[in-house]
Amino acid sequence: LDVFYVYRSLITIFLTMLICGVGIAGNIMVVLVVLRTKHMVTPTNCYLVSLAVADLIVLLAAGLPNISDVVAFWIYGYTGCLCITYLQYLGINVSSCSITAFTIERYIAICHSIKAQFICTVSRAKRIIAGVWIFTSLYCTMWFFLVDTDETVYTNGVVVTCGYRVSRSLYMPIYFLDFTLFYVIPLIVATVLYGLIARILFMSPLPSHLNDRAGGGSGTCLGSKWLYGWITKMLAVVVILFALLWMPYRTLVVVNSFIDPPYHNTWFLLFCRMCIYTNSAINPIVYNLMSQKFRVAFKKLCKCHWGQREAEYNKPAVQSQREPPEGIG
C-alpha cells in the first residue's frame, strides 16, 4: 500500500508540475503578446486574454495546491481553504463564459457581417468581459459559505483537510447548477452557433486565393467571412477540447449524484484532474499551431526576452573592459 501511495504521488506531482508549468508560461505569453502588440488587440483576442487569465487562475489555485496536498495534506489553513476554493470555481466559470462570449462574437461576425462592424468592437468586448468577471465573482461567493477545514485526530498527529461543510444532498444541487450554467448551456450554444457558421461558410465556398488571404487575416471584426475562416476553426477546436477534457469530471459528478457510495477510484480521479489542468494549459498551444499571427507574436516575445537577458549579461563585461568598477584599483 505504501509503495502504491508513493508511486501515485510521484505520478501526480510530475504530471501536475509539467502541465501547470507549460500552462502558466503559455497563458502568460498570450496575455503579454496581446497587451504589448497593438494590432493584436481585437475583440476576439480580448476574449482570449480573459480566457487565459481564467486558465491561469485554475492552474494556480487548483493545480499547484494539489502538489502540496499530495505530500503534506492541507497546509493553507481556513482562509486558504475558502480563497483557493473560490478562485478555483471563479477561474473555471469565467473560462466557460469567455468561450461562450467569443462563440457568439464569431457567429455575429460571420452570419451578420454588416451588424458586426458596429457590434464587434474592442470597447464592447471589454465591457462584456468586465460584466462576465463581475457576475462570476458574485456568483462564486457562495463557496465562502460551503467549504471549511476539518481536523481528524490520529494517534500520530492531526490531519487537516479542506472540504464541504454541508451534506452531500445539499451541495449536489449546486453542482448541477454549475453543470448546467457553465457546461451544458455553453456547449449547446456553441453547437448551434458553430453549426450556423459552418452552414454559411459551406453555402458560399471561397476562392482559393481568398482562402490563402484568410490565413493571414487581421482577426478584427471587418465583416468579411473569409477574414474569419482561420480563427473560427481555431476557436472551434478550443470549444471541442473544453467539451472533451471537462467531460470525465462532469460525468463523474453526475454519476455520483445517483449512486451510493460514490465512485472514487484513485486513478480515475487523477485522470479527471489532469484533464482539467490540461484544458487550462492547452489553449496557447492551439493558438501557436493554428494561428500564424499568434505564432509570430510568440516568437517575437521570446526573442525580445532573450535579447534583453543577453544585453544585461553582456553589459557589465563591456563596462569592465573600459572602466573598472568604483572602488577597485
Walk me through this protein's architecture.
The chain is mainly alpha-helical. The protein has helices at residues 2-36, 43-72, 77-111, 113-119, 122-139, 168-203, 208-214, 229-256, 266-290, 292-322; strands at 147-154, 157-164. Mean pLDDT is 82; it is low at 206-223 and 317-329. It has a single domain (2-75, 88-144, 167-294), classed as Rhopdopsin 7-helix transmembrane proteins (Up-down Bundle), CATH 1.20.1070. It starts with a helix and ends in a 7-residue tail after the last helix. The protein is globular. Strands 1-2 form a two-stranded antiparallel ribbon. Helices cover 77% and strands 5% of the residues.
What does this entry show, briefly?
With 329 residues, this protein is mainly α. The chain contains ten helices and two strands, in the order αααααββααααα. The chain has helices at 2-36, 43-72, 77-111, 113-119, 122-139, 168-203, 208-214, 229-256, 266-290, 292-322, and strands spanning 147-154, 157-164.
